[in-house]
Amino acid sequence: xxxxxxxxxxxxxHDLKKPDGRPLFxxxxxxxxxxxxxxxxxxxTIMGVKNIRKMLFWDAVFVIYASEWWRRYYxxxxxxxxxxxxxxxxxxxxxxxxRNILIETGLxxxxxxxxxxxxxxxxxxxxxxxxxxxxxxxSGSGGWLKHVLQPVLRKHISRGIDISVLIxxxxxxxPNSYQSSEMTRILADIxxxxxxxxxxxxxxxxxxxxxxxxxxxxxxxxxxxLPIDDESGRSLLKDLVDTxxxxxxxxxxxxxxxxxxxxxxAESPSPELVAHLEMPTFVPLSSLGQDISNLNLPATCKVExxxxxx
Length: 310
Prior knowledge:
Shape: globular
Strand content: 5-15%
Radius of gyration: 24 Å
Distance between the termini: 70 Å
Strand order of the largest sheet: 1-2
Structural class: mainly alpha
Order of helices and strands: HHHHHHEEHHHHHHHEE
Number of strands: 4
Number of helices: 13
Largest sheet: 2 strands, antiparallel
Helix content: 40-55%
């Protein structure tokens, strides 16, 4: 099988004539398709990576293989080595520049962009996020995904706090090997999709939101960078939908400050008690029940008086 034949077969399964720009994880590569792809790439490496990268669509199949390998096998070891080693390719055969070109052109075939972080192009980070959430985070995570995403969703909906800021505040729940900007982006993607479903379909008004989605939007799970054929993945999505459906927006919060204390690594030899203080950037003094004229504020606090009509 040639790269073009494998790509055509995948597109045919999705009733597509050409890639439509969806994230690579949404192609939902099956075990048999991944096996065929692996054999194809391993066989082609006999010619040497410097030659095969010129083969039509080899860059495309390599990129989607890399993203799928990341989802299936990534275990916290950051780098290209695992991907290239799995195909018997010596990483040193390609210079960094040529490897970046290979990844960028492969992504372009799928109409996908290279992600940026702090103004820099992130080639490995793009491959990681295109693959979606690594399976190891569902099968052996100890529940940290749920412990992070559920309170993030509640606080975003009820208090309007930015999702990425909230995820960062729960960093202590995330295993050290997965504390990266790429994992943060994947988690933010999941949260944003659930919030979008809540808003677009008014899930808070549905008596049984999960059944409603299954009946009226049967492909809704396809939006997520999660393996929908995995019981852990289905269970997590159910919990997240329930969370956004039952959380109410707090339009008149009595207290703009919140302190949350929780124990992390409780089962380890060195558990820690962590406290998070959450507060908005602007707090109306009226919400504190204080009279500005009688309030003695420290010099570090800035008071601005706003007139309602200019």
